[in-house]
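Quick illustration, no need to memorize.
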Amino acid sequence: MGSPIATAAGLTVPTALDQRHQGLIDNLRGATDQDFDRVYLQQQEAAHNETAALLETYSRVGGNDALKGWAAKTLPVVRSHREMVDQADEADAERPH
């Protein structure tokens, strides 16, 4: 089931991972116990950076007012989560491996 805003905009929300995102999951599954946290945090940092950039751009120049509003409202949440990932990454870097 898609989001109400996406449905109202006539968009179809994917129901499965694309090949790129499945590859990220596969990388996590293949990571050693020692490398898992580092790989996970790197993926999370990249995902949050990408999401923030998409939301920021759409909130400024998007073609659908409802989606623009949603993007603007969601952007601070994604930025906050990115800060949490940064803090976790710093803590992991300081931890003996």
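The helical segments are 4-8, 19-30, 33-61, 65-94.
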